[in-house]
Amino acid sequence: MKTSFNLGKRIWLVFILGTISATGPLSIDLYLPALPEMTRDLGTSASLIQMSLSACLLGLALGQLISGPLSDKYGRKRPLMVGFSIFGLVSILIALTNSVYLLILLRFIQGLAGASGQVLSRAIASDMFSGSLLTKFYSMLSAVNGIFPVISPVIGGFMIQYVSWKGIFILLAIIGFVLVIALLFGVGETLPVEKRTSGHPLESVREMFGFLKNAKFVRLILATGLVSGGLFSYISASSFVFQNFFHMSVQNFSFLYALNGIGIAIGSIIPGGLAARFSEVSQAKFVLSSTVLTTILLTLSALFFNNLPLVIILVFLTVTQFGVLFTLTTSIIMNLSLRNNGGLSALLGLSQNAIGGIMSPLVGVMGSNTYLPMALSIMGCMLLSMILFFSIHGKLGRGNL
């Protein structure tokens, strides 16, 4: 296991892996400002255009279950390069299409291909580092990854003033092809042949699902997925809460949303700085407890205060702690196995996407005339996550699966 990188190489690796892990979210956030124009240009309904978003999310979830096990069989680099080559080609096809139905299909394929970056960036890091070194690396990786959701809508909104929506997908194609070149010349293979799974490729899939027989692992991925559920509860409800309920302007809400995104990035860095003094498990227990307390205060404020400055502070503290927890739980889970880290990462990503996808519409069903549904949803997710995490007994360390 290589751990003796100089600072320059480590920064380059963080930048590359951070970028490839963000291409999935980037393919969603970048084109959000263009949705109204796409609806008019393709002569379709808003609901069909929004299906292109759902199709991409579905592709991102399912794609991790494909690229993760394949990387355990064939190594990390080859699936990544194939994935981003397809990502670039499909992005060009999307820019050329005039059919909303073809758009939906291509967005699904784009999600499948982009998923390779999300799942394999985690696997590559766990191939190279372990213990506190892995936590420190994930801290830097998450910080880079967290910047893209903040800047992507801004970039997309700027581009749409000067080019059509097709230009956004041309940019995604360029990003995909540039990453293929960067991977080819800038990143070596991190999974030696002797550590790869043998036999038929389906054997890698079987071994991946074999992790689900371990009750400790299931609790961990559910606890992590519930943190993602809390985050998506905030994301899906925040515009209604701050713009409709608190009557905040679009500009002020955009600034607040970006500020909370920065909070997530800052939170992601914190565990790396504490890794040498406190274990990942002890940090996670403390932050889970403090997050539950923060969300209880947020819920109480919805019942008794409805004070905007207080809500802004409590939401910022909550999402910042999400950033801390994403780094910690990812490091804990990826430290569990000495083999099949691609499959391990795939199940982790599936849990986050699935629970996040469930919570997003659920918050809307609960109502939008108050921020109580958002607060209750976040609090419920975090309380259940804490219960699951604290119920795990025994050592959580390298090779415990």
What is the third-level CATH name, the topology of the largest domain?
Growth Hormone, Chain: A
CATH class of the largest domain: Mainly Alpha
Instruction: Estimate the global geometry from the Cα principal axes.
Output: globular
In the predicted model, the low-confidence regions spanning at least 5 consecutive residues are none
* Spatial separation of the terminal alpha carbons: 19 Å
Number of self-contained structural domains: 2
* Sheet having the most strands: none
The percentage of residues in β strands lies in under 5%
Task: Label the structural class.
Answer: mainly alpha
* H/E series: HHHHHHHHHHHHHH
CATH architecture of the largest domain, by name, is Up-down Bundle
The CATH superfamily name of the largest domain is: MFS general substrate transporter like domains
Mean pLDDT level: 86
Number of strand segments:
0
> What's the number of helices?
14
Helical percentage: over 70%
Radius of gyration: 20 Å
Task: Indicate the topology.
Blueprint: H1 7-29, H2 35-41, H3 46-74, H4 77-96, H5 100-128, H6 131-159, H7 165-186, H8 201-210, H9 215-245, H10 250-274, H11 280-304, H12 308-334, H13 341-365, H14 372-390
Protein name: Bcr/CflA family efflux transporter
GO molecular function, one term: xenobiotic transmembrane transporter activity
InterPro entries: Efflux_drug-R_Bcr/CmlA, MFS, MFS_dom, MFS_trans_sf, Sugar_transporter_CS
Gist of the model:
By secondary structure, this protein is an all-alpha fold.
